[in-house]
């Protein structure tokens, strides 16, 4: 395997991971504040359509991307109004929104289908892009990769190192305690929900303006939001691990495409669906690893002990068991 | 600081939790607020710190009325509350909990410096980087106190602060409180249902019953007068009577035999332990939070798996078997959070009977009349939803669903949050069960109650069974020391 | 009867609001709003043929709605209905192709056998998600959704691979089955009366099981409090799996009816969004069996009517889904703004910390 091929592979993985990273980071912020935004998949799809349409209308892909972010925040606002202000079940509303946004995207985007439009182009930063291996993969490629990597750092810094981030985590861990300490719980949750939705919207923009350019029925990013939701669990609600999880799934997609060249007999559709069984399997492994039964087995078989998560980790207190409550 | 609650009224639907309550917290005093569970003490204190808005009356601080008090507003006035279950953020480290003090959020360096300063002043030892979930209940209380002291709280409210801590820790806490009011300016409001604590610590006492203020007393406090106010004159002697202590059971075949068993609960895994319990025994489990007594109880019930060793009921090996096998062996468990773990909120009482006795579900009405109403004096209609039951009636329903042929009855905090009549009924019932040949194993956070009703006490500390004490050779101080690890057991183990 | 009037008022409010929002969306998409709605209604109810098409869309919706009622009764989000329909259809085609066509089963048993096979297929697919939930702690939303995509992949692979038409693989589906292996149609029209009978029977069966049997009572016990059910020895995991299997069988039957009664072959995405539409219908009826048939019928009209949109007005047919989503959301809003008697199950899911 030549160095060039390896560089190309890294570039492809980073490229495919960029929107997944943004969407999963958005959901991480939202869930860290205690709001499960199940509308993520619809948000990504709808924002992809809005971003593409806006980019065509203004002939500026960056304005399109911003419009995508706004669209995502708008959908999150609907969820916030229903879930936080009206007190409806977040899960039910989120799920309805995800189906609704998908249909809305195809309905409103009918005129955009299979039309040419602008995209985000490619970076070529001097010096940096000459670094070995990662230079070309990050700096001589679509700006979305750089964008997503910067976002990981920013979100990590915000959540773990700022006072506002501390408030977010406190609100998500124990809303009752946060109220008692005079923190504005609902406002914090609403803002985090909006921020998470905006990141999901940006992810949609990255798809239609760069990673899977254009609009069509079906758009290539269908299901990406669900993968991102699973990645958040996979990453234990920690921004950096969540980003690594996104890279892992992107690597699977890229491997599928690479294998397609090697094994042309296998149908392309099988590779398209490959991330979904992998998603189920990773959730299975992650959840079993956290179970008491596994810890006990690890106590007896030292080799397994290395696989036991060191920290209790787990979901923010406010959303523990939320999925089991039904609607 | 001088705080007056003036004619406070707080209603929840038709129920008046506080009805025209007026009381004064004078500077430099420790003021006790006594009353049974459900008397309205906690509600009144939540009004005082702005969490609940009163339906009538006002809070007057230093002569000025404070309408529309919010938690932030109360905090700004210097009112702070230490609630019964620590209101903190368990996975976050100590310094982050401290940084979220209630005012502006502190930066990391600020928080650590001020935490160290407060701890040095009060004599607390709190590791700043440890997650709060690793602390004991007493340490979590100290962290809350440190946070409140740092904010220069003038009126400190404590809601049942001695639940779940040992007598020695209680003494330390009381010392801190006495020092707190020593300047003659600050005030402590102590909410409790234990008269002994109030007598030990308080300068003045107010007694609430069914939402109304029924008496105010100043030191020296008279036991009979306060009891009369708490329970009503006629009930006082009945409540005051000491229940007959069950005699220790000796000899006979063991009903439950646990041998080198390792019980693995969701959160903690216990050290291997061995114990035998005979029919007719009432065994109390003592321990502080994290000691492992709840896990032990859940292990006996088959909820937490026994992953090594043996656990046999009446000679039948049950280690590693599913919970249904424990039920078949006539082992039944009463959970501490009754509505959350034991009942179906939206189903009727009759449906509960059907589900508990499926093979006799055609006669559910007869069973309901005979067991629930006849034997346990449940006053609700069979069509009522379980969510509408009071705490006492929830426990009555749960008890009536436990079949008569139960041989091992396990109860986690069976009287938590109940009124005196229900509590007396539950202990009577446990004694009846034991007399009929069943064994009862229970855990209570209230050490006094535990020692009053247990014929034998198993003490847990740090995930291990450290002592097995027969009736007559234990007292609160010795059990308290054992369960906080202050004395190492040796000769005490029978 | 304040309960009834308030629920009528809520329904009226949400319908009116949903209508306004829909018209605004249609106008924003640059289409004539009123004409669009007229085209949709005409396409769903305008002629005898249209009504028959609507009824044939009602069949899978009713079956899936009944399936979802069973799983919701056990507090399971059976999002995998789409995949269960697909697997049901795959099993039905397999039975008809490989056993029916080959003459391995007597002709009069071919179609009933195929429907039974489709139920087994759907139940197996649902059990997969159920076992992942009860024994693997993977939430059924994720497993169901993932398995939907997997089922789609399986059906595509069969259509393009092993079951491709002689000579050429085509996205138009597998070779049509001979008419002897169809569910008898109603006078040669694209509608099978047997399908409707099966759907209604399944619906009545589910209503009876949930409301009148001990099994139904245990399911609601599991929904209310799985931990308490465990304490009483009701074996909640087994009940959940049973609910999943029953739901999956009904969804699989929907797939079987789609094959044997309508398409007579396997086509890509044969589930045709019926699973998701049924979830919307169940949410619209807020889990009540009484209103579910009405909700299903309404959504069937919308779904069938919207098929005319691309031809008549060159709009995307997904408008049906848009209307459904808006309607469910406005109903949620109405229910929270004017809470009435029986909203307990939907109520605020968690204590937001105020005055705990």
Automatic annotation (TrEMBL), chain A:
Could you cite one Gene Ontology molecular function of this protein? transmembrane transporter activity
Q: How does it sit in the membrane?
A: Multi-pass membrane protein
Instruction: Please name the InterPro entries in this protein's record.
Output: ABC_transp_permease
Q: Which UniProt keywords apply?
A: Cell membrane, Membrane, Transmembrane, Transmembrane helix
Q: Where would you find the membrane-spanning parts of this chain? A: 33-55, 62-86, 138-159, 190-209, 215-235, 242-259, 265-286
Q: Where does it live in the cell?
A: Cell membrane
Principal localization reads membrane
Would you say which domain of life the source belongs to? Bacteria
- Respond yes or no to whether keyword Transmembrane helix is given for this record: yes
Query: Which GO terms of the cellular component aspect does the record hold?
Result: plasma membrane
| Record bears the keyword Transport | no
Protein name in the entry:
ABC transporter permease
Source organism per entry reads: Solidesulfovibrio aerotolerans
UniProtKB/TrEMBL annotation, chain B:
Residues annotated as domain ABC transporter: 3-235, 250-487
Enumerate the InterPro entries for this protein. AAA+_ATPase, ABC_carbohydrate_import_ATPase, ABC_transporter-like_ATP-bd, P-loop_NTPase
GO MF annotation terms: ATP binding; ATP hydrolysis activity
- Cross-referenced Pfam families, in alphabetical order? ABC_tran
Q: What is this protein called?
A: ATP-binding cassette domain-containing protein
Q: Tell me the keywords, alphabetical order.
A: ATP-binding, Nucleotide-binding
Q: Which residues form a coiled coil?
A: none
The answer to whether UniProt assigns keyword ATP-binding to this entry is yes
Asked if the Swiss-Prot or TrEMBL record annotates the protein with the keyword Cell wall biogenesis/degradation, the reply is: no
From TrEMBL, chain C:
Print the keywords alphabetically.
Cell membrane, Membrane, Transmembrane, Transmembrane helix
Give the chief site where it resides. Answer: membrane
**Pfam families in alphabetical order:** BPD_transp_2
Question: Molecular function (GO) terms listed?
Answer: transmembrane transporter activity
How does it sit in the bilayer?
A: Multi-pass membrane protein
Protein name according to UniProt? ABC transporter permease
Q: Which organism is it from?
A: Solidesulfovibrio aerotolerans
- InterPro entries given for it? ABC_transp_permease (IPR001851)
Gene Ontology cellular-component terms listed? plasma membrane
Which chain regions cross the lipid bilayer? 52-72, 79-96, 108-128, 140-160, 191-210, 241-260, 317-334
Q: Where found in the cell? A: Cell membrane
């Amino acid at each position: 395997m030549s160095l060039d091929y390896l560089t190309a592979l890294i570039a492809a993985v980073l490229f495919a991971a960029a929107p997944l990273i943004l969407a999963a980071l958005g959901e991480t912020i939202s869930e860290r504040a205690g709001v499960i935004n199940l509308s993520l998949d619809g948000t990504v799809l709808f924002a992809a359509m809005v971003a593409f349409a806006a980019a065509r209308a203004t002939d500026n892909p960056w304005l399109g991307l911003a419009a995508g972010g706004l669209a995502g925040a708008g959908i999150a606002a609907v969820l916030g109004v229903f879930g936080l202000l009206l007190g409806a079940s977040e899960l039910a509303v989120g799920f309805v929104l995800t189906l609704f946004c998908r249909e809305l995207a195809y309905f409103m985007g009918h005129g955009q289908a299979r039309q040419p439009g602008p995209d985000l182009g490619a970076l070529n930063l001097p010096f940096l892009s000459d670094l070995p291996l990662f230079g070309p993969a990050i700096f001589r490629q679509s700006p979305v990769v750089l964008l997503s990597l910067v976002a990981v750092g920013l979100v990590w810094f915000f959540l773990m190192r700022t006072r506002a981030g501390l408030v977010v985590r406190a609100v998500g861990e124990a809303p009752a305690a946060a109220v008692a300490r005079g923190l504005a719980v609902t406002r914090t949750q609403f803002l985090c929900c909006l921020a998470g939705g905006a990141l999901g919207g940006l992810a949609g923009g990255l798809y239609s303006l760069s990673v899977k350019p254009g609009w069509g029925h079906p758009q290539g990013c269908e299901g990406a939001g669900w993968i991102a939701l699973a990645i958040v669990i996979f990453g234990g609600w920690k921004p950096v691990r969540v980003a690594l999880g996104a890279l892992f799934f992107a690597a699977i997609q890229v491997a599928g495409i690479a294998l397609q060249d090697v094994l042309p007999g296998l149908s392309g559709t099988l590779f398209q669906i490959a991330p979904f069984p992998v998603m189920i399997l990773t959730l299975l492994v992650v959840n079993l690893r956290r179970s008491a039964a596994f810890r006990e087995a690890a106590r007896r078989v030292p080799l397994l002990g290395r696989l036991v998560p060191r920290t209790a980790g787990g979901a923010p207190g406010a959303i523990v068991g939320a999925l089991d409550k039904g609607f | 600081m001088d705080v007056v609650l003036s004619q406070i009224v707080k209603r929840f639907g038709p129920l008046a939790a506080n009805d025209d309550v007026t009381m004064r917290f004078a500077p430099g005093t420790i003021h006790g607020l006594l009353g049974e569970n459900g008397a309205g003490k906690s509600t009144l204190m939540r009004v005082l710190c702005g969490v609940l808005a009163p339906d009538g009356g006002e809070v007057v601080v230093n002569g000025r009325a404070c309408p529309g008090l919010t938690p932030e507003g109360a905090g700004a006035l210097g009112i702070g509350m230490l609630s019964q279950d620590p209101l903190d953020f368990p996975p976050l480290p100590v310094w982050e909990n401290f940084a979220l003090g209630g005012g502006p959020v502190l930066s990391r360096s600020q928080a650590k410096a001020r935490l160290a300063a407060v701890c040095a002043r009060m004599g607390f030892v709190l590791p700043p980087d440890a997650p709060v979930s690793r602390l004991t209940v007493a340490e979590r209380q100290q962290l809350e106190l440190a946070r409140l002291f740092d904010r220069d709280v003038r009126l400190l409210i404590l809601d049942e602060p001695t639940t779940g801590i040992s007598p020695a820790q209680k003494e330390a806490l009381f010392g801190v409180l006495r020092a707190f009011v020593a300047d003659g300016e600050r005030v402590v409001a102590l909410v409790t249902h234990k008269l002994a604590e109030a007598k030990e610590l308080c300068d003045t006492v107010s007694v609430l019953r069914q939402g109304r203020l029924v008496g105010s007393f100043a030191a020296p406090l008279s036991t009979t007068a306060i009891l009369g106010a708490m329970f009503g004159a006629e009930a006082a002697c009945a409540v005051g009577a000491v229940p007959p202590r069950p005699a220790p059971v000796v000899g006979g075949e063991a009903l439950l035999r646990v041998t080198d068993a390792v019980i693995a609960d969701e959160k903690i895994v216990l050290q291997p332990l061995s114990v035998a319990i005979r029919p007719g025994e009432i065994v109390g489990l003592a321990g502080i939070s994290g000691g492992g007594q709840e896990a032990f109880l859940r292990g006996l019930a088959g909820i937490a798996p026994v992953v090594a060793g043996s656990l046999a009921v009446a000679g039948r090996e049950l280690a590693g078997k599913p919970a249904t096998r424990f039920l078949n062996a006539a082992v039944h468990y009463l959970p501490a959070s009754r509505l959350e773990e034991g009942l179906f909120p939206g189903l009727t009482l009759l449906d509960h009977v059907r589900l508990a006795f499926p093979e006799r579900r055609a006669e559910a009405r007869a069973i309901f009349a005979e067991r629930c109403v006849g034997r346990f004096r449940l006053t609700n209609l069979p069509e009522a939803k379980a969510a509408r039951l009071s705490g006492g009636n929830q426990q009555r329903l749960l008890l009536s669903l436990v079949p008569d042929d139960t041989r091992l009855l396990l109860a986690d905090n069976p009287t938590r949050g109940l009124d005196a009549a229900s509590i007396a009924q539950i202990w009577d019932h446990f004694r009846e069960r034991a007399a009929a040949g069943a064994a009862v194993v229970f855990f209570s956070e209230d050490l006094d109650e535990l020692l009053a009703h247990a014929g034998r006490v198993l003490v847990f500390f740090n995930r291990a069974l450290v002592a097995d004490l027969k009736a007559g050779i234990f007292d609160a101080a010795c059990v308290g020391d054992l369960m906080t690890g202050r004395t190492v057991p040796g000769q005490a183990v029978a | 009867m304040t309960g009834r009037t308030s629920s009528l008022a809520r329904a009226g409010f949400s319908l009116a609001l949903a209508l306004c929002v829909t018209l605004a969306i249609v106008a924003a998409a640059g289409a004539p709003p009123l004409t669009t709605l007229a085209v949709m209604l005409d396409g769903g109810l305008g002629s005898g043929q249209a009504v028959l098409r609507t009824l044939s869309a009602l069949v899978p919706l009713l079956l899936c709605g009944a399936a979802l009622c069973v799983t919701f009764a056990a507090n399971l989000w059976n999002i995998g209905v789409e995949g269960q329909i697909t697997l049901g259809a795959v099993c039905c085609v397999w039975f008809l192709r490989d056993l029916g066509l080959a003459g391995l089963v007597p002709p009069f048993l071919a179609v009933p056998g195929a429907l039974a096979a489709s139920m087994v297929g759907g139940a197996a697919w649902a059990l997969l998600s159920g076992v992942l939930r009860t024994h693997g702690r993977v939430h059924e939303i994720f497993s169901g959704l993932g398995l939907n995509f997997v089922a789609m992949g399986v059906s595509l692979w069969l259509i393009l691979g092993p079951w491709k038409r002689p000579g050429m693989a085509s996205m138009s589906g597998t070779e049509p089955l001979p008419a002897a292996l169809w569910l008898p149609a109603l006078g040669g029209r694209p509608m099978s009366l047997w399908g409707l009978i099966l759907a209604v029977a399944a619906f009545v069966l589910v209503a009876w099981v949930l409301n009148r049997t001990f099994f139904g009572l245990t399911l609601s016990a599991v929904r209310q409090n799985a931990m308490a059910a465990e304490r009483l020895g009701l074996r909640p995991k087994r009940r959940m799996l049973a609910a999943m299997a029953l739901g999956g069988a009904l969804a699989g039957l929907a797939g079987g009816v789609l094959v044997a009664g309508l398409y007579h072959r396997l086509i890509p995405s044969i589930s045709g969004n019926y699973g998701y539409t049924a979830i919307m219908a169940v949410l619209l009826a807020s889990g009540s069996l009484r209103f579910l048939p009405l909700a299903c019928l309404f959504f069937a009209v919308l779904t069938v009517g919207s098929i005319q949109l691309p031809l008549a007005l060159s709009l995307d047919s997904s408008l049906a889904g848009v209307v459904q989503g808006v309607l469910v959301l406005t109903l949620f809003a109405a229910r929270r703004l004017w809470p009435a008697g029986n909203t307990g199950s939907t109520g605020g899911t968690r204590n937001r910390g105020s005055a705990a």
